[in-house]
């Protein structure tokens, strides 16, 4: 998936798990791009190359940072500083990223197990799946915000 789709999916999940809190959406959106720290060529990896290069060297791409273990550890790490709402947003944002990557390839979801999980697709399908996913996410978040504010009035 593209970084913008990962950020959007993280925002949607952060917003959802916090019951419609905009802060959850922001944290989830940021967390949604964090797993690509393992790829120095990614937009996020280039920005934080000093972290990305060593992570890529040690783990490779779509391994540790694309696992349930990483999501759990990130949530545990942030919890003492923020509370449950932010920890849930981080976990949800990371898991949204992982789910997106599983639609367009395989990840080591159960790292440190070497088992790969996901759907292998032809390279020509990548942009189509990304576009469809982004469109569905935009429709969902638009609907959720509309319902939330229509119920207030």
Model description:
- This protein has 153 residues and is an all-alpha fold.
- It has one domain (3-152).
- It is 67% helix and 3% strand.
- It has seven helices and two strands.
- The protein has helices at 3-17, 22-31, 43-47, 49-59, 68-82, 84-103, 126-152, and strands at residues 106-107, 117-118.
- Strands 1-2 form a two-stranded antiparallel ribbon.
- Helix 1 packs antiparallel against helix 2.
- It starts with a helix and ends with a helix.
- 41% of the residues are buried.
- The mean pLDDT is 94.
Task: Please tag this protein with its features.
single chain; 153 residues; mainly alpha; 7 helices; 2 strands; YdjM-like; membrane; Metal-dependent hydrolase; transmembrane; YdjM
Layout of secondary structure:
Elements: H1 3-17, H2 22-31, H3 43-47, H4 49-59, H5 68-82, H6 84-103, E1 106-107, E2 117-118, H7 126-152
Antiparallel strand pairs: 1-2
Helix pairs in contact: 1-2, 1-6, 1-7, 2-6, 5-6
What is the average per-residue confidence, as pLDDT, rounded to a whole number?
A: 94
Main sheet strand line-up: 1-2
Largest sheet: 2 strands, antiparallel
* Domain module count: 1
Task: Write a compact overview of the structure shown.
Keywords: Hydrolase, Membrane, Transmembrane, Transmembrane helix. One of its GO terms (molecular function) is hydrolase activity. It is built from seven helices and two strands.
